[in-house]
Amino acid sequence: MIEPVRVLAPNPGPMTLDGTNTWVLRASRSARSVVVDPGPLDDGHLAAVREAAGRVGLVVLTHRHHDHSEAAASFAASVGCGVRAADPRFQVRAVGDTAIRDGATGADLGLGDGEVLTLDGLAITVVATPGHTSDSRSLRLADGSLLTGDTVLGRGTSVVAHPDGQLGAYLGSLQRLRDLAEDGLVTRLLPGHGPTMDDALGTLDGYLAHRRERLEQVRQAIEAGARTPRDVVERVYADVDRAVWPAAELSVAAQLHHLAAGG
């Protein structure tokens, strides 16, 4: 039995919603836990994570973005464990009671698609979900929970952070997660920002429909004379808070690239 514990980081904002969700995972009666996305370098937040986590056996990152990864290396060093991440720059190997940052540690500290991470009875299946970033990973638990990082948010929609993020890859990732939900392997989504979503299939259907709608709106904006991402944002995202327009431009750039490639 697993009941993930959320520790909310004090970094709210237009892009982080209420703040970054740090997730603590532990199997029943296990002495050690897994900490997913330690978040920002904030002493109060990290103290709360340590209190919730107890003895930590492993840190895992869903992706490289600062609000998820900034504290990973120092937190791992403070608790004497390693960091698993798809991006080698964030991997940390544990040696005895210390943790050593080493960007060339090799695949043993990566997060291969389909790999199962195990710790004291806890099993976490890695699902490669590129699109938001190229290194984005989701983490599936045996109870049907899926930690989505920024691939799916608890409110609103995620940014495709072009050029590292790619719309085609993102749409493929959403479809893959939807298939897992349709098969009953994913029932609940635990996002990197915002609340838990208990209707995984409905949420993913909504995400896919929204992306199709936005892509059609971008096509229409181009036909109406829009030429740059900013032109498109001013037409398509006119009803969206201007604070998120820079992020919207990244997503639009990804959409324009996708359309130019025949998507």
Topology of helices and strands:
Elements: E1 5-8, E2 21-25, E3 32-36, H1 43-53, E4 55-60, H2 66-69, H3 72-79, E5 82-84, E6 92-95, E7 98-101, E8 116-119, E9 122-128, E10 137-141, E11 145-149, H4 167-182, E12 188-191, H5 200-223, H6 229-236, H7 245-260
Parallel strand pairs: 3-4, 4-5, 11-12
Antiparallel strand pairs: 1-2, 2-3, 6-7, 8-9, 9-10, 10-11
Question: Which features characterize this protein?
Answer:
263 residues, alpha/beta, Metallo-beta-lactamase, Chain A, 2 domains, 5-stranded mixed β-sheet, 12 strands, 33% helix, globular
Tell me what the structure shows.
This protein has 263 residues and is α/β, with parallel strands linked by helices. The protein has two domains: 128 residues, Metallo-beta-lactamase, Chain A (4-Layer Sandwich); 98 residues, no CATH class. A five-stranded mixed sheet has the order 1-2-3-4-5, covered by helices on one side. Strands 8-9-10-11-12 form a five-stranded mixed sheet, with no helix packed on it. Strands 6-7 form a two-stranded antiparallel ribbon. The chain is globular and about 60 Å long. The longest helix has 24 residues.
